[in-house]
Sequence to fold (231 residues):
Amino acid sequence: MTARLAVLVSGNGTNLQAILDACANGRLDAEVVVVLSNRKAAYGLERAALAGIPTEYLPLRPFLDTGRSRRDYDAELAAVLASHRPDWVVLAGWMHLLSAPFLHNFPNRVVNLHPALPGVFPGADAISEAWEAHVAGKLDSTGVMVHLVPDDGVDNGPVVGTVEVPIVANDSRETLEARIHAAEHELLVDCLSRLIDLDARRKRPYEGPIGVHHPTDATERRTAALPEASQ
Ligand code: GAR
Fold:
């Protein structure tokens, strides 16, 4: 069964493009059913439009400006995505943390890509931080990872896959960044393929979110269990 992917982007969308290409060439048994961005200028939205894929634009600022909270935004984000019935929500350069009002609607179904290895350089500047550590003589390789998103921790959760990226002689920050992005494009497609295969083998397709709800505080923080076959 072809998996339905919702892809969230905040920027250029080269990883979205890797997913679109993998869907088109058969490497992924999946279709991107919606691309959503919090930034109108995100080129990822244009990539989606060029591929004929529905797009959604949902900025945070109007929520905050009208006295609504970040949690309200996350609940609305979940409602918008749920209307597209995704099997997987893929954070491909999505630069907002997601809280329980979002995550409870897609338990164990949110996948994040990060340009560093687990536990190292979380946040928005991972590549710069790795480069600076290298220049300071503390690091001769970095990496990329794909993980499930169980809670609002920063780039943290059950790991689906990692790839080490060496820092080589004559590297500049730019050449390192290019190598990291190339590794991401491969790893993200590989990991999505593994997760989708796992679903197919279990013959238990995702039933989809059952309405969008606000969890109580007591049930807010849950830990996602990584599907065993992908460990
Ligand atoms: C990627 O390097 C991704 O790992 C990173 O944003 C970039 C998006 O590139 N995400 C994070 O740093 C998450 N903390 P893209 O828009 O070209 O796919």
Notes: DSSP finds seven helices and seven strands in the chain.
